[in-house]
Design a protein that fits this description.
single chain; alpha/beta; Nucleotidyltransferase, domain 5; 38% helix
Length: 425
């Protein structure tokens, strides 16, 4: 998932994280923030290179980096031999001070909860996973599970919860990121739950909540295939169908933070029942519960109360691979509906890349050649090549890394913005 790390003279990893924004392409954000984020993205970078990439004077870079060093956010590091040209003295690079802060990222799902702790440079320190009982949970029970998981992962990292600077939290469903409000989620039994404020009060640290598909997209933007891309889309297929979109190196959430719900676009009027309560949603034909519903009907299988849906899906996949025509038909139908959704993404956003992610990407029938050909036929014929499609069957740790990236971005923005005022005191 992550690029190969370089090593500094002190042996510390210096791979960098965050969007790799092209040189001379930014004009709107504060210069101090641009400097810090370029240092973080590069892993190691010289002052002269910073000035060149930002199109500003070396004196401006020296002033700002001095402020960042004084604040303990970045540090001077002896550069690897040959990586930075210099005369007469050892080459010195700048890097994020990894030990300055630690944040946690957590993904809540219908099957299990996953958490990671990373340092200020984005390096993984610890991770953990706990199972959860099936069904939607009341808020107090969900908070109990979160507290248990956070205590466990902090114990692995050898630290207390109070030493964390923030927690990023990903949940499936409709999330108002700015307010920390979960309007609907399959993991919660109630609607309009102020999960962010409630979790913050329970855990004693800032909690930032977002839709889980946005966070796996953020993980690709910070650590994966999307780092150097200005525009790309991630479509996730797990317990539901989600999507995250990056426009101009940033996650796009819509005017009210509730956009990109690809799974709830309608593909069939008065169609199959979706978990959201409406009918005909894309996820009602493609998500795991949709495949399981088709299997119980077409193959006359039973799904016992409390039984893991994964067991049924694995059996369905095995039957399809063995040549069972009914099982193959279920995957083929789901693949065709997925092609409808992907063609919509192409027609609306024209992304440079589409990444298919999530646990169901292990079922290659969903992205078989027929499915991708169907997408080609359904997308507008412009005479230009379609965007490439990559399959990333990462586990939940990637999603939790995205949640940690959300926490890192909020923490770093809050620290970098007031530096001029702090320096003036």
């Amino acid at each position: 998932m992550m690029p190969q790390a370089q090593k500094t003279a002190r042996g510390k990893a210096a791979r960098g994280c965050g969007p790799l924004i092209p040189p001379l392409s930014e004009t709107t954000r504060p210069l101090r923030q641009q400097v810090f984020e370029r240092v973080r993205a590069a892993g190691l970078i010289a002052r002269v290179q910073l000035a060149k990439e930002l199109g500003v004077s070396p004196a401006s870079v020296t002033t700002i980096t001095s402020e960042l060093i004084e604040a303990g956010l970045i540090e001077e590091v002896a550069a690897p031999r040959g990586s930075i040209a210099g005369r007469g003295r050892p080459a010195v690079a700048l890097g994020v001070r990894a030990e300055a802060h630690r944040v946690a990222g957590m993904k809540l799902s219908d099957r299990e909860h996953t958490a990671v702790i990373v340092d200020f440079a984005g390096n993984l320190i610890a991770d953990d996973v706990i199972p959860r009982r099936p069904g939607a949970l009341a808020l107090p029970e969900l908070l109990d599970a979160m507290a248990t998981l956070l205590e466990r992962v902090c114990a692995k990292a050898g630290m207390a919860i109070g030493e964390l600077s923030a927690l990023g939290l990903g949940v499936p469903g409709f999330v108002d990121c700015a307010e920390g409000m979960v309007l609907w989620s399959s993991v919660l039994s109630a609607r309009a739950v102020p999960l962010g404020p409630a979790a913050s009060a329970r855990l004693g640290l800032p909690v930032h909540v977002d839709n889980d598909a946005n966070l796996v997209t953020l993980a690709e933007l910070w650590f994966g295939a999307g780092r150097a891309l200005s525009d790309f889309a991630v479509v996730t297929i797990e317990h539901g169908v989600g999507m995250g979109v990056v426009l101009n190196h940033k996650i796009y959430r819509g005017a009210r933070g509730l956009g990109m719900e690809l799974g709830h676009t309608k593909v069939q009027l008065d169609g199959a029942l979706c978990r959201c309560g409406q009918r005909g949603c894309l996820e009602a034909y493609v998500a795991d519960y949709a495949l399981a519903r088709e299997a119980t009907t077409a193959l006359n299988w039973s799904h016992k109360e409390g039984q893991s849906i994964t067991v049924l899906l694995e059996s369905l996949y095995d039957h399809a691979k063995a040549g069972n025509s009914a099982a193959r038909s279920i995957f083929r139908r789901a693949g065709r509906y997925l092609a409808v959704g992907l063609s919509t993404v192409v027609n609306l956003f024209d992304p440079a890349l589409i990444i298919l992610s999530g646990e169901r990407m292990r079922y290659d029938y969903l992205y078989a050649a027929e499915t991708l050909a169907e997408m080609e036929n359904l997308a507008i014929n412009t005479g230009r090549p379609r965007p490439p499609i990559e399959i990333h069957a990462w586990g939940d740790l990637l999603w939790a890394h995205g949640a940690a990236a959300l926490a890192l971005s909020v923490v770093s923005e809050g620290l970098v913005a007031p530096l001029r005022e702090i320096a003036a005191q």
